[in-house]
Amino acid sequence: MRFPWCVPATTRGAPLARARYQQAGIEAGRAPAHDAGNLTPQSLRAALRAGRPVVGTLLVSDSPRWPASVAPIGLDFVFIDTEHIAIDRAPLSWMCQTYAALGLPPIVRIPSPDPYAATMVLDAGAAGVVAPYVETVAQVQALRGAVKLRPIKGTKLQAALDGTAPLEPALTEYQRTRAAENILVINIESRPALENLDALVSVEGVDAALIGPHDLSCSLGVPEQYDAPEFEAAVCAIARGARARGVGAGIHSWLGVARETAWAREGMNMFIHSADIIAMRQTLTAEVRELRAALGGAARAGRTEAENI
Hints:
Elements: H1 14-27, H2 41-50, E1 54-59, H3 66-70, E2 77-81, H4 89-101, E3 106-109, H5 115-124, E4 128-131, H6 137-148, H7 154-162, H8 169-179, E5 183-188, H9 191-195, H10 197-201, E6 208-211, H11 213-219, H12 229-244, E7 248-253, H13 257-264, E8 270-275, H14 276-294
Parallel strand pairs: 1-2, 1-8, 2-3, 3-4, 4-5, 5-6, 6-7, 7-8
Helix pairs in contact: 1-13, 4-5, 5-6
């Protein structure tokens, strides 16, 4: 797996991204309806389903100093990735609790489309779950049970999902107040998922379909060729297909604001824009080069992309 933060990026930051996404949304008839940094999980879920643009970023750092620096950026939510980043349950929990308290609902990607992993991150304080590499309706149904019908489990949960044994009124109300607003996002990262998209996003309880660009490009046979017509067509098809079913259409992108804004015009409304580690690398690289030039020294070559994997 090649991590996205190892790929050169041309991002310019969340405030500029937000302004352009919102303008693209307005041009497409989807006006923003909230102030950044002020969303609850309920309002984030409503925005996703209504097609209103929301902007987050991937956070790699679990430093206790990070939340205070992230809070003023102007994000709607934060994305924490436990599929590719080594974050244990205890630091994950304080990250979720802290960002939630700052009005930034934490959306956590689990390592696999495992319903038990989904319940674990919800227990940690996640506002929502991203399940990677989803391809079948059965996977989505199992995730729906974990995210939307929590804390029901076992035979009772399966019967409720199958529709063979409706929940009792008291349990229905109990579950509704505890779990109905949890956010369920499925990663669309393969050709089979693209071909099965309509069935996947039609499952009750799905709130958004999120594109994983790297894995999708590999599945399409054009690895990291993000300008390939096949990749662009797939992104637009996913955006349109998700919005046609009334769920959010999202992408994690480090490919630049102009590209993301163009996708907004196709219906994309959930943007995981860049990452803290990308912003750090870009800023320090530029400033170190500028400093060396000012000091009259030659710039030192950085390590190659492959060495950073």
